Amino acid sequence: MPRIATPSSIADAPATTQPMLRAVEKQLGVVPNLFRMVANSPAALEGYLGMSGALAKGRLPAPTRERIALAVAEINGCSYCLSAHTYLGKNLAKLGDAEMIANRHGGSTDPKAAAAVRFAAKVAHARGHVGDEDLSAVRMAGYDDGEIIEIVQHVALNTWTNYINEVAGTEIDFPVVAARDAA
Fold this sequence. Notes:
Blueprint: H1 18-28, H2 33-38, H3 42-56, H4 62-76, H5 79-91, H6 97-104, H7 111-126, H8 132-140, H9 145-168
């Protein structure tokens, strides 16, 4: 049961967030519960959309971004985000089931992507306190400093969505996938 109210429609959301929610609807075809719930704070919604939009223009490909989202959602035990990113991974990034299972375990069947996902998982587990060997491993896989920064930002953004959904008790509006460690 949700612990923070989710406006039932765009019209029920604060007026200042309605144009942002319409933009989400135009892009995705729907407005997932996460966006409508975050719309309770116009500043938070603007910040989330701004960071998401900026990172979408980054150099990490969409499949790698989804892989990172799956790993971080599993680490943080967020079934909402795991459900959303399993759906997006399958339908938009075209990731297969075996790949998404590997992602949930902090890896990938793709060698280069595996390095990014392992690094992202290390950042999430260690709360940013990674070692020189962790940076060396992701660099050896072909990621430069700009891409490493993007990986860290994806971890941070996904951690934020994980936390906000867990605090809010956001109702899952995707096919449900439960996190292994979900309470």
